[in-house]
Amino acid sequence: MPDKFAATWVSHSSISDFIDCPRSYFLKNMYRSPQTGHKIQIMTPSLALGQVVHQVLESLSVLPVSERFTATLLEQYEESWKSISGEQGGFGSSQDEERYKERGRKMLQRVQRNPGPLKEKAVKLQADLPYYWLSEEDEIILCGKIDWLQYLPEDDAVSILDFKTGRNKEKPGSLQLPIYLLLTTYTQKRAVAGLSYWYLDLEDEPEEQELPDIDEAHEQIFAIAKKIKVARKLERFVCPQGKQGCRACQPFEQILLGRAHYVGVGNYKQDIFTLRDVEKTNRDSVIL
What we know:
Blueprint: E1 8-10, H1 12-20, H2 22-29, E2 40-42, H3 45-58, H4 73-81, H5 94-113, E3 131-135, E4 140-143, E5 148-152, E6 157-164, H6 176-187, E7 191-199, E8 207-209, H7 214-234, H8 250-256, E9 261-265, E10 271-274, H9 276-283
Parallel strand pairs: 1-4, 2-10, 6-7
Antiparallel strand pairs: 3-4, 5-6, 7-8, 9-10
């Protein structure tokens, strides 16, 4: 078997980054600060909110069904929120933070009232980061985390559930469906019988999605992964819009230019920045 440490690792987020803009992919997934040796990340209120809501809900899967809703989800939410409060979460003011925090409260209250599949048995993968060889010959690994795997005892199968905390629904043709199908199929032994998105800001229950064909899913993801491997080998990561950059890579270019606000080191030893100062400068100026 090839060396996994020498392989090219791809995930839903990194593949999406590459499709949006190869330069963005480089800055998010490969670049390291010359000063610290860390990768860089931009923290926004939406990202902070999503992290905390996911953390609260995913923690339920390790509990027996009878214990999942014995306490209100808001108790853990309040505690977890402390880790992203203030500038840690990219919030520009206490009022701004409270607006986002209230959105999260309403999402968790929705789940508390309508637990749906979260009150059923769940399968918990043991690996911190599930992965498998997308291609041993090409030395490419597909990895990623699944929010929730509902166990279906009548078929000894699983159904994938992905929590959505944004206000927009997933676009048709999203690669998340084929990637999650592949990951779940090849990182555990049970068949995949369903996949749903739960738009927590919008719906009381998950919205079922059509499962892709697994062979087509493999070919689709493998084709993009090979392009990423070639780009890494050639060290060629060019923004499609040229030197002026695009919406995907420009925010990270601000970090390299020293125009972002440094917040601290994240849980995965990445340097966290916000663009609060840049956004304020843009609001304070007017082009006539």
